[in-house]
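During the second half of the funding period, the structural biology subgroup turned its attention to how the target accommodates small molecules. The most pressing case was NDP, which had performed well in the primary screen but for which no bound structure existed. We therefore specified the complex as follows and requested a full 3D prediction, including the ligand pose.
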Amino acid sequence: MQQFAIFGNPVIHSKSPLMHNLVFKHLDYSACYGRYLLEDGALLREKFLDLGLKGINITVPHKEHAYQACDFLDDFAKRVGAVNTIVEKDGKLHGYNTDAPGFLKAIASFKESKTVLFLGAGGTARSTSMILQDKGYSVTILNRSKERLEYFEEKGFETALIEEFQPSSFDLIINMTSAGLEDDSLPAPKKLLDTLIPQAKACIDVIYGKETPFLKLAKEHNIPTKDGSDMLLYQGVIACEHFTNHKYTTQEIEEEMKQAFIL
Ligand code: NDP
């Protein structure tokens, strides 16, 4: 039986074991999926091999360590420097980034949207902004501190510090920060959001499993909202296609995996 796991710190809250085990069980694939609390990201490769795993997903804060641990990277993972899925093939570790295509699929229903404002400039913003740029979206990145904006400036994005930003109109406003994940904070000052949100077609949060203060505020402005559940589902579906070596169709995997969101 093949063994898979999610590596991260923390991992106790992760839905990934449930998502993947539902697929393995219902499609009769001989595998199981657990969780592994990895404190030191530098040990990722060693632990993966010691545990005899076939594949892993990687969550916060180890996606850059995962990138460094691989023998081979797909083109997109190589460009963004972050890996959230690793599969062992013939003793070599192959790395992929499924967060970004998962995110793209999650926002596909917002047709006609071309201008996007990201609140936040962390690892998730790096990969998702790149795929949006590839698809022709115009993406502006705001962050509360300067350091993380430098990467985006180098890649040709419009960037600004939240405190210096002169508001204008965007089709989609997306919370890419962890503000609201474990606290009740907004990703930017309420006054700024009260100006930006009413001009948007939709507000999206990558946080899932709760109504964040950001999405609550968007609802108060009667703007359509979406949380991070679909992104989580679709990154998992694409990861599972790699894990099962493309034995099943996307639809077959999605059908089983989405049951994890109603349990
Ligand atoms: P990082 O730690 O790499 O980046 C965090 C970002 O949030 C930084 O830009 C940071 O700004 C900003 N930030 C944190 N707290 C606040 C705050 N109170 N106010 C304003 N800005 C803040 O995180 P990730 O990019 O890895 O993750 C971001 C979010 O995406 C998390 O909530 C995570 O759960 C979610 N996520 C969801 C996924 C899904 O499938 N739905 C997949 C992956 C991630 P600064 O630079 O100033 O510190």
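Two results from this model are relevant to the next phase. The domain at 2-97+229-261 is CATH 3.40.50.10860 (Rossmann fold). The chain is about 35% helix and 20% strand.
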